[in-house]
Amino acid sequence: MTDSTPNIPLTLARRIRSYVLRQGHLSPAQQRGMDEFYPVYGLPYTGQPLDLPQIFGERAAQPLIVEIGFGMGTATAQIAQARPHDNFIGIEVHSPGVGSLLNIIAGQQIANLRVIRHDAVEVLENMIPAQSLAGIHVYFPDPWHKARHHKRRLIQAPFVKQLAERLRPGGYLHLATDWENYAEQMLAVLSAEPLLQNTVDGYAPKPDYRPTTKFETRGLKLGHGVWDLVFTRI
């Protein structure tokens, strides 16, 4: 598998990426997940709009939620299982997490969840049609906490506009971060996007469907904050 794609426009090839592609070490189980289950539950990057009937079969008409950067995928799987009437596609670039989630999907036979290992920006640009999503989740993206690296943060105005355009009217965008400075930036950027409106005044209570991760629990015990933002498409 590779993250390089032929015929990518030069503007995309030169843009600043919001992640560092660490190949990392795959455990034997994660490697097995990639080898055995990506052909079953993974979706190749094609640069063409998703064929939902081919992907989800009789479930294709169900609302589609996309999660960007699912990490090891445990929370993603829990959300998909808790919401069986929605379809989910998780996008992640790092192989260990992809392999881990594929093993969960296969082991628990999660019918409404599929995975794409590719750059989310390119997937959104080329594979997700406008006004096709019921929801988008972006949980704990890399905060790039040093000020000189803030330009690498995923949540910037152009990307948020792209997200908003993929949402159908009434669809929602749910972000979460444990960095207050990043939360402030997220709130400012989302509030400035004319296609979006906040569901509350400021930060939202954590929705019941978002599990509390082990990392998040540890941070809360140490007194760290977590900020959720939920906006909807006008």
Automatic annotation (TrEMBL):
Positions bound to substrate: K146, D178, T213, K214, F215, E216
Name of this chain's protein: tRNA (guanine-N(7)-)-methyltransferase
Domain of life: Bacteria
UniProt xrefs under PROSITE patterns: SAM_MT_TRMB
Source species of the chain: Parvibium lacunae
Keyword Hydrolase tagged: no
List of residues binding S-adenosyl-L-methionine: E67, E92, D119, D142
Keyword Ion transport carried by entry: no
Example GO molecular function: tRNA (guanine(46)-N7)-methyltransferase activity
Functional pathway: tRNA modification; N(7)-methylguanine-tRNA biosynthesis
UniProt similarity note: Belongs to the class I-like SAM-binding methyltransferase superfamily. TrmB family.
Upper lineage: Bacteria, Pseudomonadati, Pseudomonadota, Betaproteobacteria, Burkholderiales
